[in-house]
Amino acid sequence: MNIKMTAVALAIIATSSAAFAADDFVDYTNVPSAKTRAEVRAELNQPSVRTAAQSPEFVEVTPIAGGKTRAEVRAELDSAHAQGLAGRQSEFVEFTQVASTRTREEVREEALQAAKASRAVPQRNGG
């Protein structure tokens, strides 16, 4: 059986390598350029082209000088919350210490039951 499989594999390799050896290759090494190297370098040294060529997404980024550190901003926000000046918005909620109502063992047992239930349902392939 191994000899047959090896012979078939070698036959497939031999026929497929002949397909890759076709004469469809076009050599582009001697194609004359439309611009000289100096013209291309001069074009890249222009300010508008230089920023676009250096950015992979072509997005111009203007640097913003921040006057406060992250710690200063967080302290300011915390004091505003303490004074009631800033209300909690639903856009961003930072859960730093969340007390759970269930124990670790209860969560583990629920996960095991869900895994067992998913194995009990027969999987149908195709439909």
Task: Give me a quick take on this structure.
52% of the residues lie in helices and 0% in strands. The chain contains five helices and no strands.
Give the helix/strand layout.
Elements (H helix, E strand, L loop, with lengths): L1 H19 L16 H8 L2 H8 L15 H14 L20 H17 L7
Model description:
The model has no long low-confidence stretch (mean pLDDT 76). The chain has helices at residues 2-20, 37-44, 47-54, 70-83, 104-120. It is mainly α and 127 residues long. This is DUF4148 domain-containing protein. Keywords: Signal.
Global Rg: 33 Å
What composes the largest sheet? none
Secondary-structure element series: HHHHH
Helix fraction, binned, reads 40-55%
Low-confidence stretches: none
Provide a count of the helices: 5
The structure class reads mainly alpha
